[in-house]
Amino acid sequence: MGYVGQHGVATLRRYKYSGVDHSLVAKYILQPFWARFVNLFPLWFPPNMITLTGFMFLLTSAFLGFFYSPHLDTAPPRWVHLAHGLLLFLYQTFDAVDGKQARRTNSSSPLGELFDHGCDALACAFEALAFGSTAMCGKATFWYWFIAAVPFYCATWEHFFTNTLILPIVNGPTEGLMLIYLCHFFTFFTGAEWWAQDFRKSIPLLNWVPLVPEIPVYGLALFLMIAFAVIPTIASNIHNVYKVVEARKGSMLLALAMLFPFGLLLAGVLVWSYLSPSDIMRNQPHLLIIGTGFAFGFLVGRMILAHLCDEPKGLKTGMCMSLAYFPFAIANALTACLDDGNPLVDEQLVLLMYCLFTAAAMGFSRSPPPYLSLIAMAANSSNSSGEVVSNRTMMTATSGMKGASFASGGSGVLDSTGTTISMTKQIQHFSDLRDQISTILSTDKASTLLSKSIFIISAGGNDAFDFFSQNKSPDSTAIQEFCEALISTYDSHVKTLYNLGARKFAVINVPFLGCCPYLRSQSPTGECMEPLNQLAKRLNGEIWDLFSDLSSEMQGMKYSIASSYELISSLIENPQAAG
Asked: What are the residue ranges of helices labelled H in 386-442?
């Protein structure tokens, strides 16, 4: 499914980000620090990699919380709170400097904004889980995700209408995150139990408060943040959107309709949790919040993309796609009423499927489509609609600009390997797609697009396997001739790709072939075929030298080699090292 139409493509070329941060803490304390911190990154370091690295800090933090407090109701070791605080501080810092790196390297783009804010949307879930372990929130952790997600969604909604991301004098990305990591550091000294006991015990100055039932500190903090942060922020967002809609003579009802998918998400989760026979919010908080966080990320991403592409204001029906799982989950919970509290499908499995479904809706399950499938789909669409053949080219090129796979199972570097589509033919298919893209974008723009694309090559293993299948005990001369032929052909293929516009190569080398299950089953002792492993090792050395030489010869060529050989051999030789 495509997300960007022709109007969107044209709009993306003109898009310019606009944002205002009124935070005094950011202006006088953090901005000077961030301005110096960004200089630690070399100019070649991509801004999106800074964003991703910052996001990985939060993933690490959430994993620590899960490992030491699976239900978020037991106290982890105190050093975990310190780690949570440091990791969140690093996330905030990296999230702030990625944009500075983009401006520093003149690489700002709509994609960078979508990736940055998309990661921030997912971060709401993982930081809520980290704080849940620090404060022993248990099932109340969901509501900490709620107080992060609601202002985030409303700010994105406001940005959609005002075209400027407005951060007030006190805001979540600055003061909000700072407050949270200070709470993590504070808990390092007090222990998580401080949050779980009645607030009158934890805060002696409040022990005089009468007529209030026993409330844990995290519950009081939740109430105060909703009352004094979330509600005023939402009111400000609605007011700002109302002013824009009124000025444009638009419909406020249509604007509010864009909040409907998020409301539906919250309603679906709460109804499911209420009916759940296994109390999923208490017993499976990580799965519930991660799955909901993925669905939230999809909603935010679709709204950001609609803004980037200047789509019409109003409800985006495609945003509801990630919510289609709830009827099944709720119906399954209801079946427990018919069978003494036992649902038709175990709820832990339902939660796992929920996470997978929402991840798939976000696109995590998608890989580049096969090129020949793009050709077939374009041909079928053209035939059914009566369009001219030139439109097939447009459809194929438009899809191919998002990525395509030219691989063929069983093929190799040498055309003689396998009986499928040879690598030479695969490169010809790429050349055809390149020509089709050039007819849409122009030759220069197509060259720019391809120079920024990553070309993944995984080849050589089938060639080596085929060579040994035909030569049971090859002598050194035969091995030498085979290696020379393969490397020479590999060299030719890479140069052809370079001449067609490829500049960035990700190479997966020849794997640890001699220890594959089939060959070990053929050995009376179950041992690996060591000569084949030695050939793979030799080829990998020559492939490394080949790309090193080519990168010196060909201007602008960059490459990275992933050693599948080392990965697999280390697991086989020392399996206990991986746990």
From this structure: 389-400, 423-441
Note whether 532 and 464 are within 8 A (CB): yes
Q: Residue 197 carries which side chain, given as an amino acid letter?
A: Q
| pLDDT per position as a tens digit, 210-221 | 756 788 999 999
Give Cα 215 distance to the centre of its chain. Answer: 37
* 364 confidence band (pLDDT: 50, 70, 90): low
Q: Give φ, ψ of 555 to 5 degrees.
A: -65, 135
Q: Is 271 left (phi over 0), alpha (psi -120 to 50) or beta?
A: alpha
Q: What is the pLDDT of residue 5?
A: 60
Residue in the structure block whose two tokens are 């009566």: 386
Q: How many beta carbons lie within 10 A of that of residue 209, not counting itself? A: 11
CATH 1.20.120.1760 fits 17-249, yes or no: yes
Burial class, 387, CB count within 10 angstroms (exposed 0-12 / middle 13-18 / buried 19+): middle
Contact yes or no for 99/116 (Cβ under 8 A): yes
* 534: nearest Cα among 518, 560, 515: 515
The residue assigned the tokens 């304390």 is 29
Helices (H), 342-422: 347-362, 371-385, 389-400
H runs (alpha helix) in 191-284: 193-196, 199-202, 217-225, 231-247, 252-256, 260-275, 280-283
User: Lowest mean pLDDT: which of 64-73, 277-286, 568-577?
Assistant: 568-577
Could you tell me where the DSSP H helices lie in 471-529?
476-499, 517-522
* Residue 307 bears catalytic tag: no
Phi/psi at 323 (nearest 5 deg)?
-100, 0
Instruction: Kindly name the residue from 117, 159, 286, 307 that is annotated as catalytic.
Output: 117
Token pair 């504070």 is found at: 186
pLDDT tens sequence across 495-548: 999 999 999 998 888 888 888 777 777 777 878 888 888 998 999 899 999 999
137, 438, 394: which is closest to 146 by C-alpha?
Answer: 137
Bridge partners of 562, per DSSP, are 508
Question: Above 90 in pLDDT, residue 155?
Answer: yes
Identify the pLDDT of residue 386. Answer: 41
* Residue 53 three-state SS: helix
Please report the sign of the dihedral spanned by the C-alpha atoms of residue 168, residue 169, residue 171, residue 174: positive
Lowest-pLDDT range of 11-20, 52-61, 134-143, 541-550:
11-20
pTM for this one? 0.67
Give the span between the Cα atoms of 396 and 363, in whole angstroms.
20
Nearest to 128 by CA among 269, 234, 286: 286
